Amino acid sequence: MVEAAKRAEATIIDVVFHEFNPFGISGVVVIAESHLSIHTWPEYRYAAVDIFSCGDTLKPAEAAKYLVEQFRANRASCVEVKRGLFPGSTGLPHKAKEGVAANGATEPLQMVL
Amino acid sequence: MVEAAKRAEATIIDVVFHEFNPFGISGVVVIAESHLSIHTWPEYRYAAVDIFSCGDTLKPAEAAKYLVEQFRANRASCVEVKRGLFPGSTGLPHKAKEGVAANGATEPLQMVL
């Protein structure tokens, strides 16, 4: 997930991961441009990833591509959910620098491994 | 966010928050049933929340309602994104206990304050 964030050219702020008993992990990489999260259900060979981005510098598709490859997913689906597009809004900049305005989006990725 | 998670009857695992300069926060509450996340843009009076849930015990609408109230949002929109509904899947249980099967969903909430 950290490598995926790097490939998306994200600025990493924090990383938290938890392993569950008997199986499964939940993890979040907080980035200046929002976050990447993952939840896995190994018993279903299933993982759900969110790539939440803002600003116009992040490359979320690179992160998604890398994760699908690394998990060697048999099937993957990726949906873009746009948000922060209220009337009168010029868009949501990311936190790392000012003067960059683009729109927030969440890309829920799900993979069957 | 922690109180919202409690109102959703979530089992809280971890809480991470970061404050950005000059403004805005990013925060995640990791729960046994997945996570709640928030990103705020005070300069746009805008906040984006994800309530990612699995299992059939969480009450995500209670968390959303509480946050909209607490932020005194002038406008709020909430979208449910269903996932983990592959053919042959009986659904995704949460991590806290076994034998509970329901489907994963993400509820992106956005608020203008």
List the helices and strands and how they pair.
2 copies of one chain form a homodimer.
Chain A: H1 2-7, E1 12-19, E2 25-31, E3 34-41, E4 46-53, H2 60-70, E5 75-78, E6 81-83, E7 104-112
Antiparallel strand pairs in A: 1-2, 2-3, 3-4, 4-7, 5-7, 6-7
Structure explained in plain terms:
- The structure is a homodimer of 113-residue chains.
- Chain A is of the alpha+beta class and 113 residues long.
- Chain A is built from 2 helices and 7 strands; from the N terminus they run H-E-E-E-E-H-E-E-E.
- Chain A has helices at 2-7, 60-70, and strands at residues 12-19, 25-31, 34-41, 46-53, 75-78, 81-83, 104-112.
- In chain A, strands 1, 2, 3, 4, 5, 6 and 7 form a 7-stranded antiparallel sheet that branches.
- In chain A, a hairpin with a 5-residue loop joins strand 1 (12-19) and strand 2.
- The radius of gyration of chain A is 15 Å and the shape is globular.
- The two termini of chain A are 16 Å apart.
- The relative contact order of chain A is 0.23.
- The A-B interface holds A 13-14, 16, 18, 20, 22, 24, 26, 28, 30, 32, 34-35, 37, 39, 41, 44, 46, 48, 50, 52, 54, 75, 79, 81, 83-84, 86, 89, 92-93, 95, 98, 104, 106, 108, 110, 112 and B 13-14, 16, 18, 20, 22, 24, 26, 28, 30, 32, 34-35, 37, 39, 41, 44, 46, 48, 50, 52, 54, 75, 79, 81, 83-84, 86, 89, 92-93, 95, 98, 104, 106, 108, 110, 112.
